[in-house]
Write a structure and sequence with these properties.
Blueprint: E1 5-6, E2 18-24, E3 32-33, E4 37-43, E5 49-52, E6 55-58, E7 62-67, E8 74-77, E9 86-93, H1 100-103, H2 109-117, E10 122-123, H3 126-139, H4 145-160, E11 166-167, H5 171-174, H6 183-195, H7 202-208, H8 213-224, H9 228-246, H10 251-257, H11 263-274, H12 278-284
Parallel strand pairs: 1-3
Antiparallel strand pairs: 2-9, 4-7, 4-9, 5-6, 5-8, 7-10, 10-11
């Protein structure tokens, strides 16, 4: 079974958040997870490889990603980056920082939704990064701790307004759900979660909500942004990725256990959507478990 480093962060019960700024030429910290939320900013890091759950991508010159406090595996690795002046600012804060009573208030509605979405990892647009850049730039050097917290809160609020923020890991891999949904969409997703490892036809899904297949496809895409068959494939791949990471089960066995009809199709689809073959994807997660 693949083991992932479990990080013990330096946050204490009396801290609102922990912030550290580094200048580096190498990314050496291995794949890890922790209970705290983490907001990670990288400047001049083009080519660095970001791993968040089953999402693996190379970043551009500016990177800002929020990792939810749910033990989601993540790392920033060297990739093809050759820069010697990479700047990284990492902010970690406890899930207990904002009480449930506070987050349900209207003023915190967008922040609550953003924190919910971050359970799959949430990366922000360049425009959003530029909007909060000056606050990020000065946050670590602020002497007044109350003003520092207010600046941090404003950063979270501004980021929560980013309409182009993008979730990274699949919901199946992160073992979470995406937001509030209509009863019919939830019914379809529940059906797929229960039957993804079986043969599932479009007609089967449409019949769950009493719709014709063509009308159902339009309805599902309108509410989720994906057609139902693509969503089914993503669920299968997310569960396959989780088995690749968490078990030593053979790739062929994983293929059939997750509803794929043949190994070549599984390998081809996995690489097309994840950027790596199942074998190479598993190799990226072969890290030893360490407490730091």
């Amino acid at each position: 079974m693949t083991k992932v480093l479990r990080e013990i962060t330096p946050l204490s019960d009396k801290d609102c958040f922990y912030i550290v700024e580094r200048y580096k030429s190498e990314f050496l910290f291995p794949l890890h997870s922790h209970e705290e939320y983490e907001l990670n900013f990288i400047q001049h890091g083009k080519g660095v490889r970001r791993v968040v759950g089953d999402s693996i991508e190379e970043i551009g010159d500016y990177e800002l990603t929020l990792i939810g406090g749910n033990q989601l595996e993540h790392a920033w690795e060297q990739g093809s980056c050759t820069a010697s002046d990479v700047r990284e600012i990492t902010i970690q804060f406890s899930p207990l920082l904002f009480s449930e009573g506070l987050l349900v208030r209207n003023q915190f509605n967008s922040i609550r939704k953003m924190l919910d979405r971050s359970s799959m990892g949430l990366t922000f647009s360049t425009d959003a990064i530029m909007k909060v850049y000056s606050r990020l730039d000065s946050l670590g050097s602020m002497q007044d701790r109350f003003d520092q917290f207010l600046h941090f809160l404003k950063i979270l609020y501004d980021l929560s307004q980013d309409k182009r923020a993008r979730a990274l890991a699949s919901s199946a891999f992160a073992k979470t759900e995406e937001g509030s949904e209509s009863r019919r969409v939830r019914k379809i997703k529940d059906y797929i979660s229960a039957h993804y490892n079986e043969e599932v036809r479009l007609e089967d899904l449409a019949s769950q909500v009493g719709m014709a297949p063509s009308a159902f496809s339009r309805f599902f895409k309108q509410h989720t942004g994906r057609n139902p068959i693509d969503y089914l494939i993503d669920i299968r791949l997310g569960n396959a990725a989780r088995l690749l990471v968490d078990t030593s089960t053979g790739i062929s066995e994983i293929c059939y256990a997750c509803g794929f009809s043949n190994l070549s199709n599984f390998n081809r689809t996995f690489k097309a959507r994840r950027g790596y073959t199942p074998r190479d994807f598993r190799a990226l997660f072969t890290k030893n478990r360490v407490f730091v």
